[in-house]
Design brief:
5 helices, globular, 72% helix, mainly alpha
């Protein structure tokens, strides 16, 4: 299977997963996966971010190579989120489940997207209008 097809599968899989996470985690896994103290406003805020990212991931899945800026955002935000979650983890499930999920979401595109790592996040001034 080529990397393009794998990247499309990645975006569909994590997009759907993020949408489901925004609804199902607070309802079914609240005490295990969510952070304490529980706060409805925080749960809704984080859930809305996962929901938005999931929707955009599904839209990008059909042509991921046209959306490098979004792929960059997914990589950087997911890796930074992972680091913060590991440092501030309150329970082992935060490290192994939450941070593991976020790490996978950030690292997989690095392996599949066709960029040299040395040029990752390099701003190309030649494309300005």
């Amino acid at each position: 299977m080529n990397k393009s097809r794998m990247l499309k599968i990645y975006f569909y899989t994590f997009g759907i997963s993020n949408i489901l996470t925004s609804f199902l985690v607070p309802v079914f896994f609240g005490e295990t996966l969510l952070w304490s103290p529980r706060n409805l406003a925080t749960d809704l805020m984080v859930g809305s971010l996962y929901l938005a990212m999931g929707i955009v991931m599904i839209r990008v899945a059909s042509s991921p190579f046209k959306h490098k800026a979004f792929v960059d955002f997914v990589v950087v935000s997911s890796i930074l989120h992972t680091i913060v979650m590991i440092v501030l983890a309150q329970k082992p499930s935060h490290v192994f489940v939450d941070a593991g999920y976020m790490a996978a979401m950030g690292i997989i595109p690095l392996l599949l997207y066709p960029w040299p790592l040395a040029k990752f996040l390099k701003y190309d001034r030649t494309t300005e209008a």
